[in-house]
Amino acid sequence: MGKITGSEAIIQCLLEEGVKTIFGFPGGAVIDLYDALMDSDVNHILVRHEQGAVHAADGLARVTGDVGVALLTSGPGATNGVTAIATAYMDSIPMVILTGQVPTPLIGNDAFQEVDIVGITRPCTKHNYLVNNAEDLVPTLREAFHIARTGRPGPVLIDLPKDVVASMVEFSEKKPIRMQNYQPTYEPHLGQVEKACKEILKAKQPVLYVGGGVILSNSNEELTELAQTLNIPVTMTLMGLGGFPGGDPLSMGMLGMHGSYTSNMAVAKSDLLIAVGARFDDRVTGRIDAFAPHAKIIHIDIDPTSISKNVDVDIPIVADCKHALAAINNWFVSCGQDLNEVGATHSEWIETIKEWTRKHPMAYADEGEVIKPQFVVEKLDELTGGDAIITTEVGQNQMWAAQFYKFNKPRRLVTSGGLGTMGYGLPAAIGAKMAFPDATVIDIAGDGSIQMNIQELATSKQYDCPVIVCILNNNYLGMVRQWQELFYDKRYAATVMEVTPDFVALAEAYGAVGFRCDKTSEVEATIKKALEAVKKSTVVLDFRISREEGVFPMVPAGKATTEMLLV
Amino acid sequence: MKHTLSVLLQNKPGVLSRVTGLFSGRGFNIESLSVAETLDSSLSCLTLVTTGSDAIVEQITKQLHKLIDVIKVTDISESEYVEREMALIRVKAENTTRAEVLRVIDIFRGKVVDVSPKAYAVEVTGSATKIQAIIDILRPIGIKEIVRTGTIAMARAPK
Hints:
The complex is a heterodimer.
Chain A: E1 3-5, H1 6-16, E2 21-24, H2 31-38, E3 43-46, H3 50-64, E4 68-72, H4 76-80, H5 82-90, E5 95-101, H6 117-121, E6 127-130, H7 137-149, E7 155-161, H8 162-166, E8 168-170, H9 190-202, E9 206-210, H10 212-216, H11 220-230, E10 234-236, E11 251-254, H12 261-269, E12 272-276, H13 282-285, E13 296-301, E14 315-318, H14 321-333, H15 339-344, H16 347-359, H17 373-383, E15 389-392, H18 396-404, E16 413-414, H19 425-435, E17 441-446, H20 457-462, E18 468-473, H21 478-487, H22 503-509, E19 513-517, H23 523-533, E20 539-544
Parallel strand pairs in A: 2-3, 2-4, 4-5, 5-7, 6-7, 9-10, 9-12, 10-11, 12-13, 13-14, 15-16, 15-17, 17-18, 18-20, 19-20
Antiparallel strand pairs in A: 1-8
Chain B: E1 2-10, H1 15-25, E2 32-37, E3 43-51, H2 54-66, E4 70-75, E5 81-92, H3 98-107, E6 111-116, E7 119-126, H4 128-138, E8 143-148, E9 152-155
């Protein structure tokens, strides 16, 4: 191919990488690129705030596994995207973010809408680039996609000076990318696999501790095979939910600060913890020296820095979870042991676990006609058959969604786990709906979080991309209020939302539909109405919930995970 | 414990900032850092002295390796190696002390590289301990200014 403009080359690269939809917001520095986009086969979604663009692309990436792409202008456009880039980075989401930059001769001169976005995003991207020369443009784009989607995935930012994009470039043929300095390890070391398997055979009280790596590497089937063949109970992190079917008898639900009683007890009593694609985050471990005190630890992760970062690991396996789990399953198939018998040796352990669940199931107190948020999530689960794509905001709404919606499949929960970004849910829901137009997409929200990116209701209207926003409205910043109730003598500093908009009227102002519900007996009918209405229009549900309802169990910060506050 | 890391990286703008940003962002310690291009001008070699427990230094090594622009990380203090540092020291050299200063410089195999009526600028190279030793000796005479390169180091060739 001969020379084409930088803009055309960028679009060619996007198409070459299989990108169909990108999210963005224009500005002076990217106007050439927008001009070329207008006639291209890449579908561009105009959001209402750049943070929304990056979150939407992130939502699309999480539900599909593809690389999400966002396009922002220079300066404030780019900085507005930073929170969302950091969100994707913390959760290892494959993304490419294209930012405009002032022309190269002006860089460093404090030009209009100039900011050093490469400098700003260095600590919150997997890698980033400033493209200084036209001839670097195409190779940089290709390398960026390669880095974003391989190894431990993550966001990669490319800063594009206006003159580089406007210049003529050679569009060379794509060759396989080989980088001397970047070669992630996919295949596990078989010696380590064997060591791990022998340890699994010996264990009396094993637990599988599953993180987001299982979702990212699409290894839910291999994981399920391992758990079911050897009768090993499974607990999941927030990011791991759906990696193993939530409705399976071996599932203990989530672990950690708001994990189930069963999960936290099982980890505390286990003699072998098999961590798969998880990173021993502080919200999972609680007080670190009291975490899994009796257990040997096997840790499978593609990122060597995750291993022995927070907790000392006995048997590390650096590999892609899918490859490592397949190798483990293969080892067991050919090990000559009767695997049913091995599984049967865990039955006493499974009995103990069931007893914990009988004693302390996930529960909440009934308050008659006062709506319990947990009840709303349970009804959503029931009425969608556990098959909707659930995005969340951050705080109590997120934890109730994680605790009471049974995620039976991977890539159904879309939530900001690592960074905990309020305002994530609505734009992410739009991204998910763009990827799967036939899916039911529900943003489980709080009245605080939803206001952080509520402007994206306009985006959902403009592109006929209907989602349900289910606000669990308690007129509080509920999670912080809960901490204040428990640990700060009920001094509700800055957590009372004294003014909250009329969400039904607000929905209507954006051309969406709004329903309010303040009685338990009307919850089911309201959700049914919403599921009907969302076929045509975005729906905002305003559930007036029990105002001071808390999220339980709860492990207070800095305590051992067995020191749970229960309902 | 003190560790000397030798890091091979792409010789490109912004790479050093990735390395230092990693240290500041993750709360790791940099005692000294020295960097220049290698025989292959597309690469730089960075020598970095840090302190920390074995677990921390392992984390540092792994985190450095994770940076896309980093090619190779070696903890060269794990085996035999040579290290050198250079210091330029401006020391008071008046009538009464000039001879003494020259004697000290001679003992440390240093060189006088700049002379003024009241001071000598001295160049001295050696291990960090040797540099510290000459500083300690010259300090009572009166050090006016000091500039150090930080340690550079190289693993010894296998015998």
